[in-house]
């Protein structure tokens, strides 16, 4: 197969080919959604008899309930916001990505456990 230089000017637009500022805004929205999802699914799971696996979060919840969990989340966001200006603009989306990724994974795991315990879909 020969390309004959035809693809030399081919431009592929990838879904994440967006400016860093817009990407960062979208990731902050994901942070908010994943934070709410994590808090809600955690407390639903606890209500169903599941246990919090993160020892720091477990301690905060055991000691202060929802306020403890929200304080923990606020602290994490605060650290991210304090560190954000230390990064060049192009790398700033890594801050919300670093917050949203584990919380989104936690939501998925929580939903799977809740589904298994509650017998949803069985």
From TrEMBL:
This is DUF5658 domain-containing protein. The keyword Transmembrane applies. The chain crosses the membrane at residues 26-46, 66-87, 99-120. Pfam families: DUF5658. It comes from the Archaea. Residues 31-114 form the DUF5658 domain. Keywords: Membrane, Transmembrane, Transmembrane helix. The keyword Lyase does not apply.
């Amino acid at each position: 197969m020969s390309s004959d230089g035809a693809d030399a000017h081919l431009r592929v637009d990838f879904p994440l080919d967006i400016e860093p500022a817009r990407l960062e805004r979208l990731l902050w929205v994901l942070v908010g959604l994943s934070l709410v999802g994590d808090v809600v699914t955690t407390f639903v799971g606890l209500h169903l008899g599941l246990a919090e696996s993160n020892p720091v979060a477990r301690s905060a919840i055991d000691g202060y309930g929802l306020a403890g969990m929200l304080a923990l989340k606020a602290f994490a966001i605060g650290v991210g916001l304090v560190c954000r200006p230390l990064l060049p603009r192009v790398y700033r989306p890594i801050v919300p990505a670093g917050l949203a990724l584990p919380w989104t994974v936690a939501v998925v795991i929580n939903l799977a456990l809740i589904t298994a315990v509650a017998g949803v879909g069985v």
